[in-house]
Amino acid sequence: MFDSFIIKPTAFGLDISDSSLKIIQLKKRGKSFALASFGETKMEPGIIEQGDIKNEKALSENIRKAVKEACGERIRTKRAIISLPEEKAFLQVIQLPLMKEEEAQQAIYFEAENYIPLPVEKVYLDSQIISCDAKTGKLNVLIVAIPKTIIDSYVRSLKGAALEPVAFEIESMSISRALIKDNMDSQALVTVDLGENRTSFSIFFEQSLKFTATSQLSAKNFSELIAQSLKISFKEAEALKIKNGIGRSKLGKKITEALSSTLETLVDLSEKYLNYCQTQYNQKAAKILLCGGGANLKGLADFLSQRLKISVELGNPWTNIMSSRSKKAKMLTPEESLRYTTALGLALRGAKL
Predict the structure, then answer these.
(1) Which CATH number fits the domain that encloses residue 104?
(2) Beta bridge partners of 142
(3) Averaged pLDDT, 89-102
(4) Which CDD domains does this UniProt record tie to the protein (predicted)?
(5) What's the number of domains the chain is made of?
(6) Are 124 and 191 contained in the same domain?
């Protein structure tokens, strides 16, 4: 997406969130890829707020630090593919009459005005023809728009860090690239990204992202509630999420009780978007794939599966990166990999340029 920003090939992935920067660089290994570099840099509050950059200079400094301190091989390229904040994007699948591609591009621009709550001249607009139905005589087109003020601010911050933005894309696009196997794209799937500061829900089928939504529910909420209920530190609560989690043990029951309201909200939202997939697209989701740091809450997948009556799995962000013979990424644990899902999806795009 946002191919108008493409400059040169070969790039690393840079996932920018309100509180941290995550970097992944992949290298070619036979017919698959291997992890070359990775890193995470925490940022002070206030540099980015809900996707809006409040301090471009500070962000540039943090990006420089993240690149310099990345583990593994030294990152020598200045080219990066960057995530854009999901909550700032307008995404819609529209229908157009069958027409030539060059005609469609012009029609998309004018049709987008009916779906975007901003003047078209104030957004960067990208589109992708996702299917062509000869029977109905319609083109299904995915359009994504983001305010120019948002992207321009990211560009300035990246250039301040001496980086060249190869391309930008919303997080859900990167996540689907990392988690969804090429031979699974005919099934409707829902991805749930339990991030540090928010949760994103996406619907994907027919080789395309169809829908995305965000919630303020977050992995940080989990840890704060556990810490408050059990009267322990935030760091201890983080460890308990992974080691003990929710379940039938004495401690597991206490954690479940501490998270009861938040878990119910997660169930309600997941059910809402599963129903939306069925009613809006006439597609029953085959499964839910979890990712993000919050997905490491032990027992969460089983809990959601039982409540929603659908298969819920922890996503594997290496599924399209490593060959089936590769057991794991040596430098990242499975738990860490889930936190790097967006960055891995970005890096995979960069490795294929």
Answers:
(1) 3.30.1490.300
(2) 93, 128
(3) 87
(4) ASKHA_NBD_PilM
(5) 2
(6) no
